[in-house]
Amino acid sequence: MEPSQHTNGPWEILMNPKEDYLLIENVDRCDFHPVCVIYGEGKKQEANAQLIAAAPELLEALRVAHEWIYEAAKDNTEALKPLRAIMDALQAATPNTL
Q1: Structural domain boundaries in the chain
Q2: How confident is the model at residue 76 (pLDDT cuts 50, 70, 90)?
Q3: Strand order across the 36-39 sheet
Q4: Does residue 24 sit in helix, strand or coil?
Q5: Contacts 24+ apart (CB under 8 A), 22-27
Q6: Degrees (nearest 5) of the Cα angle 33, 6, 52?
Q7: CA distance 21 to 18
Q8: Among 26, 43, 61, 64, whose CB has the most other CB atoms within 10 angstroms?
Q9: CA–CA separation, 1 vs 45, rounded Å?
């Protein structure tokens, strides 16, 4: 598998009370550039920020699930067709990252 092209995680949310946006940054802040800027206000803005900040962990969980399903689905039986469908959906949702 090729190395990921995205900013490594974990990511965190940085709030600026004087502005109407939130920043998503790498916890180490090694590149001094935000991963994402989220505009808006209130609970929707915070929920969007939490979802985006969780992306590296979610991607890793998908990689683990993909690997497990791949191993389980090697046996080409009818009972494993749903697993292959899940694996295809994971791959389609995260092209070039699994």
Answers
A1: 11-53, 57-93
A2: low
A3: 11-15, 21-26, 36-39
A4: strand
A5: 22/46, 22/49, 24/49, 24/52, 24/53
A6: 75
A7: 9
A8: 26
A9: 34
For the chain, give the mean pLDDT. Answer: 81
What the block records as the tokens of 3 is: 């190395």
Query: From CA 24, how far away is CA 33, in angstroms rounded?
Result: 9
Give the type of residue at 28: D
In whole angstroms, give the CA distance from residue 23 to residue 35.
7
pLDDT band at 26 (very low <50, low <70, confident <90, very high): confident
CA distance 38 to 19: 11
* pLDDT higher at 31 or 66: 66
